[in-house]
Design brief:
heterodimer, A: alpha+beta, Thrombin, subunit H, 2 domains, 37% helix, 25% strand, B: mainly alpha, Arp2/3 complex 21 kDa subunit ARPC3
C-alpha cells in the first residue's frame, strides 16, 4: 500500500491539470461562439438560476429591509429631532398661552374691581391675595398691602360681588384678613326687603349665620342680606349673601338665619380694602384713600 | 451658615404653609408644617434645636396668623423641645416613637390653639372641632413627620455608610 501512493499522486495532479485545461478551453469556446449558439447555454443555466433565485430573493429582501430600516432610522432620527423641537415649541407656547390666560383672567378680575372701585361711593384700595390660611383654626387671607399703603386694622374688605371680611392685623407691607365665615368676625347686616337687622357671624363649621333677627320678621328664604352700615368698617348696602334657612326654636327669642355668602372665598384673587366711606373727591390714586379722614359710620 | 440655613428653612416652611399647603390637603384639612418642622428638629437633632426651630418658625407663623403674636411661637417651641427631650431621653428615636410623640404634641398644640382662637366655644362645638379637625389633623401630621423622619434617617444612614467606606 505505501508503494501505490506515490504512483497515484502524479495521476491526480495530471487529472487536475487536464480538467483545468478543458475548463479554460470551454470558456474560450463559449466566449468565441456566435450569440445564437450561446442560447442553449441559457437553457441549460435556467434551472440553475431557479436554484439561485430563492436565496437571492431572501438576500435581496434582507438587504432591502436592512437598507429600508437604516434609511427609515436615519429619516426617523431626523423626524424624532424635529418632533422634539416641535414638542419643545408646543410646551413653550402652552406655557406662554397659560401665562397670557392667567394675565387675562387677572386683568379681567382687576378691571372689574377697578370699575367697581370707580363707581362705588367709597375710597378703596385694591390688593392681591398672596397667602391663605396658615392654620386650620382661622379662615384668613394675606394681602399684599400694609401700613405703608394706608391699611389699618378693622377696615372692611370687599369685592365687586360683596363683603369678604375684615382686616385684623397689619404689617408694613402685608395684612391679614379674617373672612366673614370665621367665628371671630361679626358685622351688622340687614335683610334687604324687610329691613330687619341682625348680626352676621361665621361659625366653626365655616358657614355664616344671621343672628338676632326679630321674631316677627317677615324674612324668607332667598332674601338678600346686605350690610346695615351701623359699624365703622362697611357702608350700608353692600351685598353679603342670601338667606338659605331660617330657624327658631320654641325657647329662642330671636330667629336665626343661615346665610349663603355671595362671594366664593376659595376663588378670590383680588380684593378691595375700604379705606374710607367718603366718595373720592378727586382723581387721586386709590392709595391716598387710606389717609382720608375716617367717616362717622354712615355713607 | 447653619443659622442662615435654619432661617431659610423656617421662612420656606411658613411660606409653603400659606401658599401650597392646600395642595396636600385631605378633605379640606392640611397639616401644620411648622409644627412638623419643629418636631422633626427635635427628633433629628436634640431638644435645644427643636426649641430654637420651633420658636423661630412659630414667630414667622404668628406674623401671618390672625391670632395673637406669640401663641404659635410658644406652642411650636415647646413642641420642638418636648419632641427632642422625649425621644432622646425617655425613649430611642424610632418611627413609632415619632408617630406617637407627634400625635400627642399635635393634639395638645391644636387644643391650645382652639381654645385660644375660640374661647367661647361650647362643648358640642369643641367636640365637633376636635373630632372633625383636630384629631384628623394630628394624625396627618404624625404620619407626615414619621415619613419625613424615616426618609431623612435613611439618607443620613447612607451618607454615614459612604463616609465610613471612604475612610477605610
Amino acid at each position: 500500500m505505501p508503494r501505490t501512493e506515490p504512483s497515484s499522486l502524479p495521476l491526480a495532479t495530471g487529472l487536475r491539470r487536464l480538467l483545468l485545461v478543458v475548463g479554460i478551453l470551454f470558456l474560450l469556446l463559449v466566449l468565441f461562439l456566435p450569440r445564437n449558439s450561446q442560447e442553449w447555454l441559457g437553457q441549460v443555466g435556467g434551472p440553475l438560476a431557479l436554484i439561485l433565485e430563492g436565496p437571492l430573493r431572501v438576500m435581496a429582501s434582507i438587504q432591502d429591509s436592512v437598507t429600508g430600516t437604516w434609511d427609515h432610522y436615519v429619516a426617523l432620527q431626523q423626524v424624532w429631532e424635529e418632533n422634539q423641537d416641535l414638542q419643545r415649541q408646543i410646551q413653550e407656547l402652552q406655557g406662554e398661552q397659560n401665562r397670557l390666560r392667567e394675565h387675562a383672567i387677572l386683568a379681567l378680575e382687576f378691571q372689574k374691581l377697578s370699575l367697581y372701585q370707580e363707581a362705588a361711593p367709597m375710597v378703596t384700595l385694591p390688593a392681591r391675595i398672596i397667602g391663605r390660611n396658615v392654620s386650620n383654626w382661622y379662615r384668613a387671607m394675606v394681602i399684599d398691602k400694609g401700613t405703608h399703603d394706608g391699611i389699618r386694622q378693622e377696615m372692611g374688605v370687599i369685592t365687586d360681588a360683596g363683603v369678604v371680611g375684615r382686616v385684623v392685623r397689619v404689617n408694613s407691607t402685608t395684612s391679614i384678613i379674617l373672612l366673614l365665615s370665621d367665628p371671630n368676625v361679626a358685622i351688622t347686616g340687614m335683610i334687604q326687603t324687610s329691613r330687619d337687622e341682625g348680626i352676621i357671624q361665621g361659625t366653626p363649621q365655616g358657614t355664616i349665620q344671621m343672628k338676632y333677627l326679630p321674631p316677627l320678621s317677615s324674612v324668607q328664604v332667598g332674601d338678600a342680606v346686605v350690610t346695615s352700615g351701623l359699624t365703622d368698617d362697611f357702608p350700608r348696602g353692600l351685598r353679603i349673601g342670601k338667606i338659605q334657612q331660617i330657624t327658631k326654636a320654641a325657647t329662642d327669642l330671636f330667629q336665626l338665619g343661615e346665610v349663603t355668602p355671595i362671594v366664593d372665598f376659595s376663588k378670590l384673587e383680588g380684593v378691595l380694602v375700604i379705606t374710607s366711606f367718603l366718595p373720592p373727591i378727586s382723581t387721586e390714586s386709590p392709595t391716598s384713600g387710606g389717609t382720608l379722614p375716617a367717616p362717622a359710620g354712615s355713607p | 451658615m447653619i443659622i442662615l440655613f435654619h432661617l431659610v428653612l423656617c421662612i420656606g416652611t411658613v411660606v409653603a404653609q400659606a401658599t401650597v399647603s392646600s395642595w396636600v390637603s385631605i378633605n379640606g384639612l392640611y397639616p401644620d408644617l411648622c409644627l412638623v418642622l419643629a418636631c422633626l428638629a427635635g427628633f433629628l437633632k436634640n431638644e435645644y434645636k427643636g426649641l430654637l426651630m420651633g420658636l423661630t418658625v412659630g414667630l414667622f407663623q404668628d406674623l401671618l396668623s390672625p391670632g395673637g403674636i406669640g401663641l404659635n411661637m410658644i406652642l411650636k417651641g415647646l413642641a420642638g423641645s418636648l419632641a427632642g427631650a422625649t425621644t432622646h431621653t425617655i425613649s430611642t428615636v424610632t418611627v413609632p416613637a415619632v408617630i406617637l410623640v407627634t400625635l400627642v404634641l399635635s393634639l395638645v398644640c391644636g387644643l391650645a390653639s382652639l381654645i385660644m382662637a375660640y374661647p367661647a366655644l361650647d362643648g358640642v362645638e369643641t367636640f365637633h372641632a376636635f373630632s372633625r379637625i383636630l384629631a384628623p389633623q394630628a394624625l396627618y401630621q404624625s404620619v407626615l413627620a414619621a415619613g419625613i423622619f424615616w426618609i431623612s434617617h435613611k439618607f443620613r444612614q447612607s451618607v454615614s455608610v459612604v463616609h465610613f467606606s471612604q475612610g477605610r
